[in-house]
Amino acid sequence: MQHSVISYHSGPFATVSMGLPGDHEGKTATRVFFVRGADRIALIDSGLFGGLPALEQAFEELKIARGDLDLLLLTHEHMDHVGNNGWLKAETGCTIMGHPGRADRVADNMLNAKAIVHAFPEGEHFDLNTEYLDWMGPTEGPIDDFVRDGDEIDLGGGVVLEVVEVLGHSMAEIGFFERSTRTLIIADPLLPPFNPVLYLYEDPSVMRATFDKIERFLKERDVQAVLFAHDEVKTAAETIELVNDCRRRVDQVEASMVTHIKANPGITFADLRDKCCDDQNMVREWRALVSIDASLKNFSEKGLIEKRGDGWHYVG
Ligand SMILES: [Zn+2]
After folding, report:
1. Which of 58, 74, 236, 271 is the most exposed place for a label (fewest CB within 10 A)?
2. What are the pLDDT digits (tens) for 82-96?
3. Ligand 1 center–CA 313 separation, angstroms
4. CA 257 to centroid of ligand 1, rounded, Å
5. For 204-248, how does the pLDDT look when each residue is reduced to its tens digit (9 = 90+)?
6. Structural domain total, the chain
7. What gap in Å lies between CA 118 and CA 159, rounded to an integer?
8. Neighbours of 31 (CB within 10 A)
9. Torsion (CA) 38, 95, 77, 174 in degrees, nearest 10
10. Cβ–Cβ under 8 Å, residues 81 and 75
């Protein structure tokens, strides 16, 4: 018998796990989530292209005919979440729903890849194929309908998904709160501590506000379970511990940056990335450039640092 690809099955939810290339002890698999109501079936995220066999097997295991998938709900535009959009659209005819903020990237794999992997010409040149494009299928699945914070998606039989905006990791990210089971599904705003990359955020202030928002939401809505794209299912209390750990890790990235800018007047963007990654034993890769750039902008706006020529100086 084949090994099951369903890692969690409870109430209306079934989680499908897909291994990542260069997986970190298998823990950082991407997960996508089937949610079944009485009238409609939704899938939250399509995963990475390398996970397509797992996705195909999940339809079999869950006895869902491909034509019965009504909705594909996207958390955000990153390649390990939209990689099978084109395949799903062609095979199931589902309606694709997502945040309007990055709809142009979801509709164009090359734009999506360039917008993040090649966003920092001062940093380092990375291969778009291996770093990003190979994670996505040959065809895109653009967003058909936009959803925003507070919107409700009724799947029938009391299964209702409420859209919860969780910005910072991506500036167009949403999660979903299922009301009947008080379950929150969030992909990447709370990255797990075993993630081998530097904490990935596009704006540290927005990221911190999202940590606060998630903590408030867990308490106010009496959330019973939280499902994550790259982590095991957690209780609200366990998730608050993770929120605090995420706060600490964003603080650590910034503290490390300040230390190196002070110690090395005129440090370049690329050198700063290397030193910060080394401090935390993280891989020196393009994702780290995103966070370093975001915090440099933030420090600069606060008047703490300034750029002269190619280098950064502490002036606060
Ligand atoms: Zn992501």
Report:
1. 271
2. 999 999 999 999 999
3. 31
4. 22
5. 999 999 999 999 999 999 999 999 999 999 999 999 999 999 999
6. 2
7. 41
8. 23
9. -40
10. yes
Coil/strand/helix, residue 21: coil
Please name the residue that has the structure tokens 């309606």: 95
Query: Which pairing describes strands 152-156 and 159-165: parallel, antiparallel, or unpaired?
Result: antiparallel
Q: How far is the CA of 177 from the centre of ligand 1 (A)?
A: 19
Last residue of a domain, one of 228, 248, 268: 248
What is the extent of the structural domain holding 121? 6-248
Q: Give the integer Cα–Cα distance in Å for 289 and 303.
A: 21
Residue type at 46 in one-letter notation = S
Residues 176 and 223 in one domain: yes
Which residues lie below 8 Å from residue 177, measured CB to CB, with a gap of 6+? Answer: 161, 162, 164, 183, 184, 185, 217, 221, 223
| pLDDT at position 124 over 80 | no
Per-residue confidence band for 44, with pLDDT thresholds at 50, 70 and 90? very high
In terms of domains, do 142 and 67 share one?
A: yes
Last residue of a domain, one of 233, 248, 263: 248
Tokens for 271, please give them: 């050198």
Position 222 scores a pLDDT of 98
Reported as a pLDDT band with limits 50, 70 and 90, residue 123 is confident
Residue 276 sits in a domain of what CATH number?
1.10.10.10
Mean predicted lDDT score pLDDT of the chain = 95
CA-CA distance, 84 to 82, in Å (whole number)?
A: 6
Q: Helix crossing, 204-220 with 286-301: angle to 10°?
A: 100
Calculate how far, in angstroms, residue 106's C-alpha sits from the geometric centre of ligand 1: 13
Distance 60 CA to ligand 1 centre (A): 27
Across 132-147, average pLDDT: 97
Q: What's the 61 CA to ligand 1 centre distance in angstroms?
A: 27
The pTM of this model reads 0.96
In this structure, what CATH number is given to the domain that contains residue 88?
3.60.15.10
DSSP state, residue 267: B
